[in-house]
Amino acid sequence: MTFQQHVEQLVVRALAEFPAESEIYAVTFRIDSVDQDPRFPYLAIGYTTEAEVARLLAAPNPPEAWEARWSYAYFPPSGLEGIRVAGHDPERDPIGAELHRRETAEQGLWYEDEDELSEQEQDERGERLNGQFHTLCVDVARRLHTDGQITKLLGRSLPVILYDMFDPDEMFALTKAANPADLVTDFLTESPEAYG
Question: 163 - beta bridge partners?
């Protein structure tokens, strides 16, 4: 099994664990890494609900409607922390951690702290590892759509919102690449490209 296949399996398992709730309007993929170390990327799979948006908009001094619906700053724990983690997190996904380490070692990207790599070499490998994991997450989300897993497990087609809290602007490009255009029209109204 490849690392990507493993992540896909855990994502599908997470979708099956979502509550049978018709108010879910988006699947969330929070891209992160253990201790902000690019060697240990993981994906927190979650969801957001219409009830949470309504609660935010009914509060005193509510956020803008777009922010309440699409900004991870306002996501509930189910959307921010997710319900399952997949990736190179030895504690929460030891199988994924081993698969990822093996594959990155085969690609010549893995290194240990005691290896004599310059800071620049570590940064270059880190950038490649980040890019690969972002690509993997986009591919997994696309596959959820093309295989019909979201519709099968959640009853209808929903967007997958991908975000990396350490690179907030990247969420627009990642989410656009991961979804059919009609599912992310509203989300993309606030992208930098919308004002270009």
Answer: 30
Ramachandran sector of residue 36 (left: φ over 0; alpha: ψ -120 to 50; beta: rest): left
Question: Which has more confidence, 177 or 196?
Answer: 177
Work out whether strand 160-164 and strand 24-33 pair parallel, antiparallel, or are unpaired: parallel
Picking from 103, 179, 148, the residue whose alpha carbon sits closest to that of residue 12 is 148
Q: Which residues are within 8 A (CB) of 64 and not within 5 positions of it... i.e. 6 or more apart?
A: none
> Tell me, what's the pLDDT at 74?
95
What are the residue ranges spanned by the domains of the chain? 3-189
Rounded to the nearest integer, the mean pLDDT of the chain is 94
Contact between 67 and 74 (Cβ < 8 Å): yes
Q: How far apart are CA 69 and CA 28, in angstroms?
A: 12
Does the pTM surpass 0.90? The reply is yes
Return d(Cα 89, Cα 33) in angstroms, integer. Answer: 8
Separation between Cα atoms, residue 155 and residue 151, nearest integer Å: 5
- The enclosing H or E element of 153 equals helix 149-154
Query: Rounded to whole angstroms, how far apart are CA atoms 109 and 28?
Result: 28
Give the separation between CA 24 and CA 17, rounded to whole angstroms: 13
Closest by alpha carbon to 50, among 11, 15, 23, 85? 23
Per-residue confidence at 107, pLDDT binned at 50, 70, 90? very high
What tokens does 38 get?
């690019």
